[in-house]
Amino acid sequence: MAGYLFLIGGDTDEQAYENLKHCIQTGVYSTYIKPPKEKNWRPEVASTFADYLGMRAGDNVYFFSKRKVYGVGTLVDIDNACKYKNFPDASEAMVYNYEDIKEDLLYDTDTGSQHNRWLCVFKPYPAFFKTGVDMDELLQSAPEKIRIIRTMQGVSFIKMDDEENKAIRDFIVYKNKDSINDETMHFPVIDDVHHRIKRKLSQKYSLKASDVMDQRATPTGILDHEMALECGVLELLMDDDSTNEVLGNWKYVSHQVIASPFKPLAYVSKMDIFGYRHISGLPVGYDSSVSDYMVIELKARKATADCVEQLLRYVEWIKQEYAYGDYSRIKAFLIAKSYDQTAIDAQKTSAVRYYTQGGRSPKTATWAELRFIKYRYDKASRKLLLEPVEL
Description:
alpha+beta, ph1033 like fold, 2 domains, eight-stranded mixed sheet, 10 helices
């Protein structure tokens, strides 16, 4: 399972601790979103919206406050989802007054709750321990596995993959091994908060990528910002109830994932969408056996040769950092509104890799798994439509 590390702040240590305790006790996390200045969300806000879209029940939950990490929890479904809009029009880039929407709020913390646009719900797993783990000590516990949270800067929370999540969960549980059955060392939970949310839920609270795509769609089906396209593709990939005939099905999906050696964050490269799936048909206990990796590069308008070259750099990164040199485990997709001739030429000439598999009986293999996909947003049906490009 994946994991999320949420940042909890405060002006003082005491206030930060009270904020942490309140969040854990209510089993609800909601990011503060600054009021919009325009009729469209800023890219960083749309990215936060996409973060919520990527949540699944069963993902672990941790909190980072005043240099310490607290856990462990897990996202849970209320009705049929673990994430919701806090009020029916929360995804609209408009300014709301608290008094006008307070009757519709799922999560009401008094004046200012109108700034909590989206929320997720969670419960202890097995407990939220009162004793936090120092971040430096946590990073040193498994440096080869704990990587993504090192890049947590300028965001409210961050997502990590199965391997990193397990390393963090194991260390927190280890540090609290003497407190597992001691409830005095656990944060208590207010049982009725989730029940109050459930009583109020309806379809109008559902989190939909179309809420963001509608704001950025032209009459011809072009999304004028790539983060809107990113939201739409993420939602398609997160749908466990349908088979994605174009992109396939993936167990873990994340966006804006680091794809370069650690350096100042202003200079790092990020994959638009990254994911993997597990080997199917194995018994319980083998859930973390990864089969294939996926990377997607997005272009809201026309893709060029530069887009192909960028995607291929990500392929090389995955081959080196995740796939242990095996290109055959990597599927790459470029999704754009259209493609110019330079992109088509680059796909035919550059997007092929020849490599060797095996040790004592090596075999030469060819990788050619970069696929072009065209998108169109249908505003009437509020659906993102994908179509493979035949070259």
